[in-house]
Amino acid sequence: MSSRSPLFCDAALASRIEAAEAELIVAASRAAQVRSGTPGFVLPVRGGAATFAGTSSPFTKVVGLGFGGVPEAAVLESLEHAYAVKGAPVQVELAHLADPEVGAVLSDRGYRLEGFENVLGISLGLEPDLTPPAEIEVRRSSDAEFEEWLAVVVEGSVHPDTEGLPWHDEFPRAAVEEAERDFASVGVIRYAALRDGVLAGGADLRISGDIAQLAGASTLPAHRRRGVQAALLAIRLADARDQGCSIAVLVAQPGSPSHHNAQRSGFDLLYTRATLVKAP
Length: 280
Fold this sequence. Notes:
By secondary structure, the protein is α+β, with helices and mostly antiparallel strands. It has helices spanning about 10-35, 75-85, 100-110, 145-155, 175-185, 230-240, 255-265, and strands spanning about 40-45, 50, 60-65, 90-95, 110-125, 135-140, 190-195, 200-210, 210-220, 245-250, 270-280. It has seven helices and eleven strands. Strands 4-11-5-10-9-8-7-6 form an eight-stranded mixed β-sheet, with helices on both faces.
């Protein structure tokens, strides 16, 4: 990876990545509402979206804000009321490359900073120089093994690594399982990793234009530190490049093993999202 030039991220690239993220969250939120029969909402907000798919859903948040202008007070009052009616806080994920005025406006309205997450990316202009460990087999996961794959991914997700800063969001097992079902219904590609023939981990890939979104990577605790995540990453990057993507992105907690592994694999830190929360 030493021959690669670091991937530079300006506001224009961040806007594209945040738009892809908003697109995914909106689609998954709508799928969650259909699956559960829970009345929710999707509200456009200045280039982003405010979604509600249940009080414990990872899709209940405001995403992509800050690249289409500063939301007016009336707009913010409307969405804050929509969340309050549901008994939910307003949680905004705001990129630090967004219009800085948005953060100031939210602070003035009583939003509290509660966490950070890092967005990392890698250019796919050259073939990723990653070789999966020989003992790990990675393949696309079929619908026939979905329930087995889901059980592994959920089990790994609810037993996260404890290194690095903790996630602001911690979801119960049922919420993680439902989120993966909703991802599957909106065309997210699933990958399974087998170690010595045993299903040990899984991950997701979504294509949005020329951007590949890597998500859902999870390994059973008994199989960690054996190259499972490296293998899942290598195969997804190769597939993304084959499908014409120019960049791949993932989200990790600052100082976490996932962040460390991504940087060792050639990913660069593009920007940071702040989590700003206002209680109902």
